[in-house]
Amino acid sequence: MIRHALDLGITFFDGAGVTGGVDQLLSEGLGDRRNAILLSTKIHLGPDPAPFSDMLLANKASSWVARRFGLVCSAATVRRRVEQTLKAIRTDRVDLLHLHAVSPRQYPKAAATILPELRRMKDEGKIRAIGITEGFLTDPGHETLRAAVRDAGIDAIMVGFNVENHSAADLVLPRAEQAGIAAIGMFALRGLLNSGIAEDLKRIAMEARISSLSELAYRFSRHQAGMDVILTGTGDPEHLEKNIAAVLAPPLPAEVLDRLRALTA
């Protein structure tokens, strides 16, 4: 899948650090084409789950507990996780390193203690850009990212944005664009197929002669002002090709956008 994506012209790949278990696959899949792409990955802010720091489940649990209770690990722990990530990906730098799923309770501590350490690592050349991802399902009003773009101490944000919840168009993206902060859209399709408005969306797509709900969703997110990259996740080559075609399609007609916004107002 990774090599097929490369052959199709994809130049942005997003891993998940020690909480996702995909960075090693990215390293193997990219091979000697590593320098042809931008590599993004993440680290979580939970306490070090020693002696299980290399275990996926332990890191996921640590990340969840930290978000819930507003805990933030030490700067030294973050540095060690970055070094672990570099080793896993077999590279000398990460193009974009995100603090992952930072909760509103975590953000002030992270801004005060963790971001300065990441900036030092950026000066050392181990990180090219610093980002923050939000916990979209638990922070649908984008409280964390609203604070982050206001402070303007980062280079990129990963923001939840889709037909059902497009509030970032008003609350986050204009300020990010003004501050020169890149915006990476996630959740363009995830969750929509099982949402309460799925059938209405399919009907709108059909009446507008749009091939699928997926195409409708990707075209909606991709052409939002201030959005720079749209993430797509898939395990099937044909599905990937359809998603790319949707992202490359023109903006949705104005009358379709009006129907979508009325549906989700």
From TrEMBL:
User: InterPro entries in the record, alphabetically?
Assistant: AKR2_Oxidoreductase, NAD(P)_OxRdtase_dom_sf, NADP_OxRdtase_dom
Q: Source organism's superkingdom?
A: Bacteria
Mark the transmembrane ranges.
Answer: none
Entry protein name: Aldo/keto reductase
Question: Which stretches make up the NADP-dependent oxidoreductase domain?
Answer: 1-263
